[in-house]
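agent> Task received from the user: take the single chain below, predict its 3D structure, and emit structure tokens. No templates, no multimer pairing.
agent> Plan: (1) validate residues, (2) run structure prediction, (3) serialize to tokens, (4) report one or two observations.
agent> Step 1 OK, no nonstandard residues flagged.
tool_call: predict_structure(input=
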Amino acid sequence: MQSTLSLSFSPSSSAAAVSRSNTTRFSLNTSTPLNLRFCGLRPQALAFNASGNHRSSQLPSRPRSQAISAALSANGSPPKSFDYDLLIIGAGVGGHGAALHAVEKGLKTAIVEGDVVGGTCVNRGCVPSKALLAVAGRMRELQNDHHLKSLGLQVSAAGYDRQGVADHAINLASKIRNNLTNSMKALGVDILTGFGKILGPQKVQIGSSDKIVTAKDIIIATGSVPFVPKGIEVDGKTVITSDHALKLEFVPDWIAIVGSGYIGLEFSDVYTALGSEVTFVEALDQLMPGFDPEIGKLAQRVLINPRNIDYHTGVFASKITPARDGKPVTIELIDAKTKEPKDTLEVDAALIATGRAPFTQGLGLENIDVVTQRGFVPVDERMRVIDSNGKLVPHLFCIGDANGKMMLAHAASAQGISVVEQVTGRDHVLNHLSVPAACFTHPEISMVGLTEPQAREKGEKEGFEVSVAKTSFKANTKALAENEGEGLAKLIYRPDNGEILGVHIFGLHAADLIHEASNAIALGTRIQDIKLAVHAHPTLSEVLDELFKSAKVKAHASIPVSEPVAV
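)
tool_result: status=success, residues=567
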């Protein structure tokens, strides 16, 4: 992938430039940092209601900054009465999560959407991609004769119907989109159709009409779009982005995937399962640069090496020309460091998986003296928007991909919920290091917190020891019963006080297993406490149970867990 994954902490944090699934900065020949995102839908999106309250991690109350922008007076005075308590620009997963929580808190709420409800995640991202990956997983099971024979099964040759697979993804996206829309309507959220443009303090124009809506508080939740580097010509047929790939209009014999991060990895899983040959083009010297190195090495051994995949690392795709006039797609590669020509590839198709860029143009930010930073809306740790003078814009927030803090759909939803908590009188800061991420390959990869190199760098700067514990899926009864013993779980922690710094999992249902660790980090639970928890036997959850039990925390550990860093 022409990228690296990195999270930059605020200046107050001594752990600079650490993370993985958070901000994904791409080392392309461009100055724009880019990001990948994942999916986190509220239960209402699946057509049922949860009886419990949706809660995100809470930190101790802190005094709010009093630095409020005075420059807004030039743009008119705020209205004295409002049409809504809360107006959300963007009806993706982040906006949906904020809207539902706002209604729960008694706020009169409206959401503005210029495209379709559900945003990228539901329509062109997380949801349809999981439908394709579900098919890929079934195909792999049916094609693995050795695995089937070990279970005593005999299956004839497996095949698939391309249009049927595509329809599965399309129908799932449509179902979730309708459920999102109906859940908001049922709760009384007004859905306003059109692009929202901020005209001034607490004022938003809807579409190209003269309709102006006022709100006491406004949340920007406009998401992101695929990023295409310069020199790459996308025709939507043979040179495509993830938006096009999810339609599965054809399955090429040979496809190049530019970028070996989460998006590229998942699509390589889909295409190889359906019979394609895949070639990765990666700017860095190694594949999967954003993962914990040990997990990435194991994942490459399982997900890349045995499959019909080859790769070029340390190169940029400086120019990609679509297939035309009987000629194949051509990809010109240059050395990532010297920029000297390296090679030219001729393939049937090319997928550009170089991340995503914020969709913030046309928001009217100039009307409130806000200047984006490489397209991202600047915010503080409470998602409050910051103007060009470094002061807070009153009653204006930005969540999700548009602010670039952590481009995950479920992070956007958590940020939106955090904002609603604030505007209803409860100070709240989301700890982004407790937000998990996952890659839905077969097997899956998941992670939360710091990688081992990041943790050791932090330990050196802050003067504490870092230890690592590991456990294998080969020791888990349930995994062995499934004949899926390939996998590893890794715990990075402080042996002096039992603080969990990071957890990384590669193996069967890793995306489901990570949440015990992420919740422990969010709640500040120490290893010496969580290792006393009881897990049902035999279950995959015992992988985490054994992992925590194998950690060696010093007997005298009584130092309180350090306060999570808000980023």
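agent> Step 4: summary for the user.
The longest strand covers residues 212-220.
agent> Done.
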